[in-house]
Hints:
By secondary structure, the chain is mainly α. The chain contains eight helices and two strands; from the N terminus they run H-H-H-H-H-H-H-E-E-H. It has helices at 3-26, 35-60, 63-66, 69-100, 102-113, 120-126, 129-142, 161-178, and strands spanning 146-148, 153-155.
Amino acid sequence: MTLYDSVVIVPVGAAFFIFLVIHIGFFRFFPSQDVLRNLIQVFLIGGAAHIAAFIYYGGQQGIIGSMGLLSLLFLFVVSFLLYSCLAYIYTICVFGPYESSIRIRIVRELYRQYPKLISWKELSNHYNIDMILRRRLDRLVRSRDFIFDGKFYTAVRKVNMFSILKIVGKKLSELSNNQ
């Protein structure tokens, strides 16, 4: 690994570490309705840590004084893009399912109550099936995949991922039956 590689990678590691520590250590105490705003704030704090780590580590390695401004800016942009990609992948692949999965949220609720016992009634108060179904249908209407006319839900598009998979599956089945 060259010196330039380390000047790009070390700030990414430091910033992502700060991002994770704040996210894992403190994010559970934030209200769930402010998730997106708090996620952006944690990303920006990690970004500030990235800037500080880039300046500190680049200065320690002698890069900041010896490189031209354009080259230094290029290294910083590449480094910041790597940090952004790591934060994005973590958010999409780890945090997204963790926050949106009801099963995982129930497990989290059970562990939050540990060692105290929690009854079925207490859990069902938190996770009302009508509320869950209404929220998910509202998301589908807001995403413009479905329309709700006050009484019925209707699909907007006839062609979607499910219909394409059905067509492909049907064609593959026909091909395999013909051979």
